[in-house]
Amino acid sequence: MTPACKLLKQHRISYTIHEYKHEANSTNSYGLEAVEKLNLRPDEVFKTLLVSDGRAYYVAVLPVSHQLNLKKMAAAVACKKLSLADLKDAERITGFLVGGISPIAQKKRLKTIIDASAEQLDKVYVSAGRRGVDIGLAPHDLSQLLGAPFVDVLDE
Length: 156
Fold this sequence. Notes:
The chain has 156 residues and is α/β, with parallel strands linked by helices.
């Protein structure tokens, strides 16, 4: 059981576990690999990205099939400019390996934004904190647990 699963259980939030064999040499991104192996739609599998303004870090949760619009994300967290965090920094700060970064149960709780597209779904799938393991849960439960608002942060 991953820390994300433990936290969800502790808060009595209903979730499902979905495991697949992660292929180290897959040509797909981690998120698209989950879509393919779990037979899910790309709009319901969400990736977790870490961004920074050079002083603080923030978390963006968005569909794996889309790109993050850094200007929209910056506006959502009231920053002038953001950039994607270095992969080593992302691992150090979240406590998870890239490809398995969960928005849930990170080492330090960071301000998190969930893309508005999640609000229309019954269930979203996010990493459980390990490559090859995703959690399915209601987007409003995820939002409430993380104190994360739904904001449009996608590139058009």
